[in-house]
Specification:
The protein is of the alpha+beta class. The chain has one domain (3-115): Ubiquitin-like (UB roll), CATH 3.10.20.30. It is 24% helix and 21% strand. The protein has helices spanning 21-27, 35-39, 68-73, 106-115; strands spanning 3-6, 11-14, 19-20, 52-56, 81-83, 88-89, 93-97. The strands form two sheets. A five-stranded mixed beta sheet has the order 2-1-7-4-5, with helices on one face. The N and C termini lie close together (10 Å).
Amino acid sequence: MPIIRFVREGRDVECQPGENLRQVALREGLGLYGLKGNLGNCGGCGQCITCFVQVIGDNPDALSPLTEVEKVKLQRRPDNWRLACQALVNSSVIVLTRPQAPPANSKSLIKAATEAELP
């Protein structure tokens, strides 16, 4: 079963293959949204673009391919950003939630997350 390592939250979460990344994060009570997203997100349709995650590492097949919605909505965003509502988990992956407002210690958190082996 795939493991999602949430860097900011310091948690590893097991999920089913093909499970939606947003649904896993919400089920686990993780803070996927910033203020704007908490006030008014689209419920997972890819229209509000508030559920950004940054995919850490070099495993392009860990998540499903970009959807057509993401190709439009993420045009001016880094290549390793995804919309959690559009991404299905294929294999273990490391993600940073809310990369548009990274924590002050994000570099050390990312380093620690990538150095620790995924279960």
